């Protein structure tokens, strides 16, 4: 694979001294040097030369700023579906900009990109206003799906004097952020556009893990535990849980590993057959004969090739509407057992909204705070069209273009999937090899 | 209303001295006197005479037993759907029978009444076997729906030498227990049949509250909180939550009161209109215009008159199959808003299985323990065809016939419903009066 | 016992029509009739006459009010230590007074009774201000211990025009409320003083259960579970947990019943010996020899006779300072095992503040809402010097004098203590009989 | 710093074909190549050559084994204090060894190293025996502190035929494991000794994060939230929470970041003064004057220089007994405020055992499973005297000698501490620079 271009864009020369320099407490004074970066791939094969490998710029405060904090207007917008931690990120941005840099004009744009147009009034954000929002799930700014006209947004943000825009959203949102950053430059009012990638599916590249992902699979685990109790509570009980994961099965894999209870984990990256000796239905029958109960976890994007008409329609955000693999599987399993005169009691659980809207767990709260402070640091230096990520444990800058170039997926040859197979003990469910 | 017959049936004279009498620690030696009972209705109207009012027999240990503990076989069976606390009750029965009375043959019948037939092997239960089961949801004995032939069960239980049968189940199950008790007597092998009423809907009469109910509405509250977060997170967001409650809206009422977030609570006891000036759709529109988001909680048995074809079919337990008011409301609301060109974002949550299968919360664990010990006390005295209930804070014996004679419902003129209206602020949603 | 005087005091004739009458929705229009009351004792002994028994007035809205809602000023104060549910009660009072009665001047007095003096500014409370406070533990009004001069408070409240004062506090606080109500009458500015009894120990008479109690014992259960894990994790491990309960062991009893893990429950109502064949130390040794681990739960007021110098000092609220039975037991157990050369690993847990400051659980949230609405209903009718309680499942008015006349305790002859003994299996630990 | 020696020791040539090779499902067949490793430091400075940097061997299954699985005896021992996840690790080892390799003799040694001597009987572990243990905190094997004679252990393990010993413990335990591995070789019965580092303080080098750490700081967060509620609930309320962290402040830092409520975080790595203009007492007074409440989090190893007599004694494991900084601070703060006649209400919370004994959270459960499987993979290849770690997101082998060479600490110049300062807003509390 050609290495991605990982150079970070910037609005120009940083002419302002950072107010963080004035603070002499330990930690705060250690500015990050732009000449340091993190190796994208740190696996060494004996004898190999590695100094030309691509590397990611470190995130963190710099000694000189592009914007004068006293005159800076910072905007925040949250787009797309709910994800645990949105309020933590908003809160962290406001607190850092206000307390650390002295920024006093912070605008929250309600209802996603719609809030960046004249349709909505922005909300003035202060430390007091955001102090407790992270105790709640959801986003205090609300969100919406769908795109807005980039030129309209650029003009509106210019009229409001926005200098830094923190955009919290998924790949579609980040694509829009990229276009918006370019449009503001073209229009002569350059805005530093800093993304914080929001993907509950954890499917964005160059990001160890996305915020809210851990909270999500933890919440999913409770649904699996319930499915297990239901399965054990009835003759030949089958608990079937559909989890998030449109193109990537990370939530399904982690939630399966977090319990001991899953017997079949089905993810988009690994095709499976329903019928035939190696298919799911036969394997499920063998499991029930042996143990009288079974738990199946299926990611929403798994097994799409089994569904007719899948992939035809798109939603307001332009995402492909997936066929519903959960109800499809439930129907096919019930029909298969009924047709053969075998008893089975299937309980189907689809906990989607109950997962998306919970507050961040403590680990995600810590993570969101750290993402948020680094977003402010980047924006104040005029760095633009980047996202804040964590790579190998360090916070880094990733160009939006690189982050959205391709989707992160579970590697069917990697150790995560191996661990899932070790945990479920499931056999290969397909004649074909993993794609 | 004619007062119900509250006399408790018994297998006969108690000729064995209770082993509890030997224990001289405080509390254990205070036996209950059968001549004491609890007033069914303790509201006094000034000047009224009350000594003829019906009263419930107190539960608890008696000094003399009908069965010789050393020779007693005690059986346990759990029937119907899952409910938080089933394992607590099983555990409490085993612990009390074993440690307090010295009963050594305790049989668990798997898969509900099916386990009381020769189809299944009973499971030998010991304190060690049940020590930690209450940490898990579900039932270690598993359950099933549907009836079994009473004569077959009576003969099978006789062949196993069962003396006391603790039956944990709902009204259908209790009806079966009643028949089973009579059949065993008729067959000359009388079994003391003691019920512990299991109804997640809290709809059994003469029982302050059923076990698992509090855990259920607490779990339901989390779904409502999620619905609220989703509703606030989108333009004109509507969170719609369907909760258990086939004929009685107790879960919907308590879950609504437990949060501040519900704007409309819909229960079977209070009819509502969809259309018209006073209907739900118009009221919902007014709410959204005023506050831009709304949360609706609907009990599964609410609004059945709005559904065509409702009430036709029955499930394996003989329960009427309800029409799905949740998806019906979701469809109607979406259609109504779309037809009028109004924006709205409805998220529908149906958390049923996630509620039924959680472990009991601490309060329900305490309650289950106390129900269980009293069930053993009753059975050892040969009392039969009764359920253990809690009435005005005291544990009592209720004849099965009285307990299942009619269903407990939310009183639309009572203070619980008044409290719900005070909390939601919802208007009257119907032209007709509450039934 | 002489029956307590249960007549409810009132400021005078109710001349205003209740605004609740205008509302025609089900439930709200059912006013409570003062001639109805609840039997204090509803146990019937066969043949007994009962119409002269003491009865408690029902709580709830009345058709006529003493105060004109449009002109009413309602005050709220929280006193003493934290208890789960304080914010729920504050919120429920504000919501009911504002939305149901149309009261527009609601004052929160900060820092307990200190806030009822000129030392502090009252806080204007509105629905918006209190909307989310119940998600947090503690009290938004803050609290303090200690008394204030009643005349000073009466004059200050008069100067603020307070008509109804809702006082949330324990027995000392209620005693002060009684005095305050009398003082305002004597001074010609009668205030309706309505108490909501706050006692995490659940030790107030004529109240089925106090708010926060269930949350407290549920939180305590987690500490016990931890103690159990520690005890099982070490050779001859002993987990010792000190719980709240100055004079009444309800928390210790319920928390013990909620787990299966407690082997010794020690409460103030049941004396125990340390030494001797029947003492705790010998019983503990036998338990360890048999099972290699043990869990002990001790209420803070248990075993005070064992402590020298106990009962001498008093805190700012006038409560007797108890000797610390927890560290005393830990020291004595360690010394006893060391002196005999027996191995033991004792872990001592004192979770007090972690319990007091958690948010109310869902059941307590429901309960707090219902207490709060009834407090407003009582106050608007000019009823005074009463507390809102729940008796046998119904909300009632209890004169403050009756509520604080004596302390509710665990009955060593009752079924709660019997259930604890059945659960722990602990032997009698004393030569003397229970007091 | 001289780079550590990261070569992994091994018992010898692997002559057995791995049974994993027979499995053709995706993932399982991708064996790890010993010539691949992970860069210890992956920060690149522009133009630098990096191929000689130290690198860590990747963990995972190899195609050839040292031990014949059918004849292998695998032992497990847990040492030292409790830590969330111990049961998850035990369970993962048993499941992987049994189901993936076909090992049938798995021995659990009770009570730590004591169980590796003839004093205790080992426990036969099977999948059924460990199926549900991870639902509970603690360790099913129990643990103990203190060392045992290495020669005695080596002889006893040899007599039992142990081939692979999985040791779960902290640095003292790992030092013992190192000695034990060497002794078994010297005695001609070489055992593959594989460590899983257990440190709730997260203070072991070359490990991104230790298992249980995340659960621990999450549990600690709840104590902080309680402290915050107590602090806000009283006049000039101060909540003081002592957390684990003998030499490293990771738990204090993460728990502080996870809430918004902490105003002062005190860790061993950053000295602080009590007195003087820049000291904690003065800063605390300024905070209370400004905001009327404050929350302080102190790691148990912080501020030891302030304590007289600290560092003199040692516990059974040889750890230095720390002076109690928590009660010391509480006393000094109370005395300081009292001496100046300032009101303050300090609540002190020490949640230690309540944190150590909780079950692993879902993320730690996943992590423990993955550590456990990799431990088995390493042991079956005869690799020895290593620990399983996760480095930059990948599972690796670290020589025990390297892992315990020095302690991991919070870098006062690093971004974690900077984030804490950004969150608390605390000033520098010392004249001296951080050590």
Show the helix and strand layout.
The structure is a homotetramer of 435-residue chains.
Chain A lengths: L8 E2 L5 E2 L18 E4 L3 E3 L9 E4 L5 E2 L7 E6 L7 H16 L3 E5 L13 E2 L2 H4 L19 H10 L4 E6 L1 H16 L5 E6 L15 H20 L4 E7 L6 H9 L5 E3 L13 H12 L1 E7 L25 H15 L5 E5 L2 H5 L5 H19 L2 E2 L1 E6 L2 E6 H4 L11 H10 L11
Parallel strand pairs in A: 7-8, 7-10, 10-11, 11-17, 12-14, 12-15, 13-14
Antiparallel strand pairs in A: 1-16, 2-6, 3-5, 5-18, 8-9, 17-18
Would you identify the CATH architecture of the largest domain in chain A?
A: 3-Layer(aba) Sandwich
**CATH fold group of the largest domain in chain A:** Rossmann fold
**Which series of helices and strands of chain A comes N to C?**
EEEEEEEHEEHHEHEHEHEHEHEHHEEEHH
Largest interface: B-C, 75 and 75 residues
Helix content of chain A: 25-40%
Largest sheet of chain A: 9 strands, mixed
Number of helices of chain A: 12
Low-confidence stretches of chain A: none
Number of strands of chain A: 18
């Amino acid at each position: 694979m050609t290495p991605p271009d990982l150079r970070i864009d910037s609005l120009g020369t940083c002419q302002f001294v950072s107010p963080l320099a004035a603070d002499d407490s330990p930690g705060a004074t250690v500015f990050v040097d732009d000449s340091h970066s993190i190796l994208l791939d740190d696996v060494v094969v004996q004898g190999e030369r590695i100094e030309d490998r691509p590397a990611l710029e470190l995130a963190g405060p710099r000694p000189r700023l592009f914007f004068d904090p006293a005159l800076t207007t910072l905007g925040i917008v949250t787009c797309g579906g709910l994800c645990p931690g949105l309020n933590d990120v908003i809160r962290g941005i406001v607190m850092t900009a206000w307390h650390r840099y002295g920024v006093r004009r912070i605008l929250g744009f309600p209802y996603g990109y719609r809030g960046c147009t004249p349709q909505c009034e922005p909300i003035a954000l202060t430390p007091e206003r955001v102090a407790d929002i992270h105790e709640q799930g959801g986003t205090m700014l609300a969100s919406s799906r769908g795109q807005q006209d980039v030129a309209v947004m650029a003009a509106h943000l210019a009229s409001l004097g926005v200098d830094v825009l923190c955009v919290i959203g998924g790949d579609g949102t980040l694509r829009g952020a990229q276009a918006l950053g370019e449009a503001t430059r073209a229009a002569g009012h350059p805005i530093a556009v800093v993304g914080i990638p929001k993907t509950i599916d954890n499917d964005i590249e160059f990001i160890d893990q996305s915020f809210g992902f851990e909270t999500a699979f933890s919440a999913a685990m409770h649904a699996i535990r319930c499915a297990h109790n239901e399965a054990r509570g009835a003759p030949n009980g089958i608990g079937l849980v559909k989890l998030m994961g449109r193109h990537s099965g990370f939530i399904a894999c982690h939630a399966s590993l977090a319990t001991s209870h899953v017997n079949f984990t089905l993810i988009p990256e690994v095709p499976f057959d329903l019928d035939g000796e190696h298919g799911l239905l036969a394997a499920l029958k063998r499991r029930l004969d042996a143990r009288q109960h079974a738990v199946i976890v299926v990611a929403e994007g798994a097994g799409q090739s089994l569904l007719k008409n899948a992939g035809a329609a798109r939603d307001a955000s332009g995402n492909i509407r997936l066929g519903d693999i959960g109800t499809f599987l439930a129907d096919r399993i019930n029909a298969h057992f009924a047709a053969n005169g075998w008893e089975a009691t299937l309980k189907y659980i689809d906990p989607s909204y109950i997962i998306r809207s919970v507050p961040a767990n403590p680990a995600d709260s810590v993570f969101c705070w750290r993402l948020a402070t680094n977003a402010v640091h980047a924006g104040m230096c005029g760095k633009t069209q980047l996202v804040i990520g964590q790579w190998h444990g360090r916070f880094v800058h990733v160009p939006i273009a690189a982050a959205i170039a391709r989707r992160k997926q579970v590697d069917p040859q990697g150790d995560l999937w191996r661990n899932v197979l070790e945990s479920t003990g499931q056999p290969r469910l397909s004649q074909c090899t993993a794609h």
